[in-house]
Design goal:
Blueprint: E1 34-39, H1 54-61, H2 76-79, E2 82-87, H3 96-112, E3 116-121, H4 127-134, E4 140-145, H5 165-171, E5 175-185, H6 193-200, E6 204-207, H7 208-214, H8 216-227, E7 232-237, H9 259-267, E8 274-280, H10 291-311
Parallel strand pairs: 1-2, 1-3, 3-8, 4-5, 4-7, 5-6, 7-8
């Protein structure tokens, strides 16, 4: 595979047109292997809004990313052609289900072309139309890092809020619940509906107390066992981390993962059959420091390394088999 043009990375961080990690902006899918994209949408939130501003601020803070991973010495930009394909252009911003259609149509050609997508949200409702865009021949596996299971049903008349994407995906035959692991779950609820749905359908739910007891390495090993060699999607909600690290989010829950634990967990997932992933629920108005967006950008870089390693493996012409 050809390498990414990193000429923008040689500019001062405050200069140039902002793209994710200062990679080229590209519309031609044939010119890239991994697409970075933004979904500036928060029409599915049930609490604090603001995630529509997430992609813009993550792009801004991603200027702090560099090329070579300090642990593995891996350079994802050298291994693959990485490009920013821009944001979903919404035509139906104020209609939740129609907006999800805009998201699906934007990503359909990306996955149809056999490319991986790494997406910055936006609220967590965006993951369901991304699954629809992938349109897998058989249900996907999932590694899901979050404070919440996001398997509730309807909220105030809608079944498509940020609390429901994985329930909708199971119902649509897009997600295999028995190859799903949900990590970092915590926080009191007024109903056990979401926890019960996940557990009753065979999802592996790792509450934060178990994570703390066993540690990220053991949980990553279990995730690998559950997922196996199936095509797998990675979804990271920043409220999975403790709000000490990510205060800029819509539904914060104290007692979450640390940044170091999250990095260790992600690094333990190397080599899986990745199809795509997202980092969601960054709400910059609740964090004037910009740290939440910096954490999100750094996690995107870590995930990019996972994806690029997979895409660059010998014998893999298309990054994924779905």
């Amino acid at each position: 595979m050809a390498a990414t043009d990193l000429s923008q990375m040689q500019l001062p961080r405050f200069a140039g047109i902002p793209t994710f990690m200062r990679v080229p902006f590209e519309r031609d899918l044939a010119a890239l292997d991994i697409a970075l994209a933004g979904v500036p949408f928060d029409g599915g939130v049930t609490a604090r809004p603001g995630a529509r501003f997430g992609p813009r601020e993550i792009r801004n803070m991603s200027t702090m990313m560099r090329a070579i991973h300090h642990v593995t010495r891996f350079n994802p930009f050298e291994a693959c052609r990485v490009a920013d394909i821009g944001d979903v252009p919404f035509e139906h911003l104020y209609d939740l289900e129609a907006a999800h259609g805009d998201i699906r149509r934007f990503f359909e050609p990306v996955f149809r072309a056999g490319k991986m997508a790494l997406i910055a949200g936006g609220d967590h409702s965006i993951t369901y139309p991304v699954f629809q865009a992938i349109a897998p021949k058989s249900p996907l596996a999932l590694v899901h890092i979050d404070a919440h299971t996001d398997t509730w049903d309807a909220f105030k008349g809608s079944k498509f809020t940020h609390g429901a994407p994985f329930r909708r995906a199971v119902e649509a035959g897009l997600l295999d619940p028995k190859r799903t692991i949900q990590i970092g779950i915590r926080g009191a609820q007024n109903t056990d509906e979401g926890w019960r749905y996940s557990l009753d359908h065979g999802m592996r739910v790792v509450f934060i107390e178990e994570f703390e007891k066993r540690g990220p390495t053991a949980i990553a090993e279990e995730a690998r066992r559950i997922v196996g060699d199936a095509p797998v999607y990675l979804s990271l909600d920043v409220d999975g981390l403790d709000p000490v690290f990510t205060p800029g989010t819509g539904t914060p829950e104290i007692g979450g993962l640390t940044t170091r634990e999250t990095l260790a967990l992600l690094r333990g997932l190397d080599g899986l059959n990745w199809v795509g992933g997202d980092v969601v629920e960054v709400s910059p108005p609740y964090d004037p420091s910009g740290n939440t967006a910096l954490v999100a950008a750094t996690m995107m870089y870590e995930i990019l390394c996972l994806f690029a390693k997979r895409a660059a493996m010998p014998g893999i012409n298309a990054p994924v088999s779905i």
